[in-house]
Specification:
eight-stranded mixed beta sheet; alpha/beta; 8 helices; 8 strands
C-alpha cells in the first residue's frame, strides 16, 4: 500500500526536498502550493526524477483553499506542516509591528492549525497517521533564555513566538490523540541554506530535512509529542 503524504509549501526549498526524498522512497506526494503554477512546475521536476506527485493549490491562510484541497485528496497517511514565513527583519520586540507579528502567526500557527484540523479526519482513518510540524529551535524558551546561545541574541520575536506556539500545539494535540494510531511530532531543521533563511545557513537542505524524513519513513513510529532534530532532542 502506497503511503500518501501532503506537504505544505512544497514547491521550493525544504518542502520540495522533502517531496523529492520521500517520493524517491516510494511515497505518493501531494505538493501543497499557494501558487498552483509553481506547484505544477515542481511536480514536473519531481516526476522527471521518478516521483509520483500531484500539485494541490493550498494557501494555509485561506480556509476555503484548505477545504478545497481536501476534496482532491481521498486518503492521507502523513501531513507535513512545512509552510512558513518570517517577516521580523531583526526588529527589536519593542518596535516590531503588530502587522508583522500577525503575518508570522497567520502562516506559521493559525494556518498550521487550520490545515491540521481539516485533514485530521483523513489521518485518523489511516492505519498509522502522522503529523510532522516543521518548527524551529529559535522557538525554544529554554534556549532563548540562555545568554550563551545565538538564539538568545536573535531579534525575531514574532517568528520565534509563532514557533513556540507550534511546539505547544504539538504537545497538546499529541496528548489528545494518545491511544490512537495518529502521532504528532515537531522537528527542528536548523538554519538551512534556502531562500527562506536568506541564504547562508549552516545546514544544507538535505541535512535540514533528514530528521523529518526519518520520522516520515520509520516503519513503526511510536514517538509522539517530541521536538527533535537530526542531532537528537531539542529542549522546549
Amino acid at each position: 500500500m502506497t503511503i500518501k503524504t501532503l506537504i505544505t509549501g512544497a514547491d521550493r526549498g525544504m518542502g520540495y526536498e522533502l517531496a523529492l526524498e520521500l517520493g524517491l522512497k516510494g511515497q505518493s506526494i501531494y505538493v501543497g502550493s499557494r501558487n498552483l503554477a509553481r506547484g505544477q512546475a515542481a511536480v514536473a521536476q519531481l516526476e522527471a526524477a521518478g516521483v509520483q506527485a500531484q500539485a494541490v493549490q493550498l494557501d494555509v491562510t485561506d480556509h476555503e483553499s484548505i477545504v478545497a484541497a481536501k476534496t482532491s485528496i481521498p486518503n492521507l497517511d502523513i501531513l507535513i506542516n512545512n509552510a512558513g514565513i518570517a517577516v521580523d527583519h531583526e526588529t527589536k520586540p519593542s518596535e516590531l509591528s503588530l502587522d508583522a507579528i500577525r503575518q508570522d502567526f497567520n502562516v506559521n500557527y493559525f494556518g498550521l492549525i487550520d490545515v491540521t484540523q481539516v485533514f485530521l479526519p483523513l489521518l485518523k482513518a489511516a492505519p498509522a497517521g502522522r503529523i510532522l510540524n516543521i518548527s524551529s529551535a529559535v522557538g525554544s524558551l529554554t534556549l532563548a533564555s540562555d545568554a550563551s546561545t545565538s538564539i538568545h541574541k536573535l531579534q525575531a520575536s514574532g517568528y520565534q513566538a509563532s514557533k513556540s506556539a507550534v511546539n505547544m500545539l504539538t504537545v497538546k494535540l499529541a496528548a489528545e490523540l494518545e491511544g490512537t494510531p495518529v502521532t504528532v511530532n515537531a522537528v527542528n531543521p536548523g538554519w538551512v541554506d534556502t531562500s527562506f533563511g536568506g541564504g547562508g545557513g549552516n545546514r544544507t537542505v538535505q541535512v535540514g530535512v533528514a530528521r523529518t524524513v526519518e520520522l516520515a519513513t520509520a516503519h513503526a513510529l511510536t514517538d509522539s509529542g517530541t521536538f527533535s532534530d537530526i542531532d537528537g532532542i531539542v529542549p522546549w
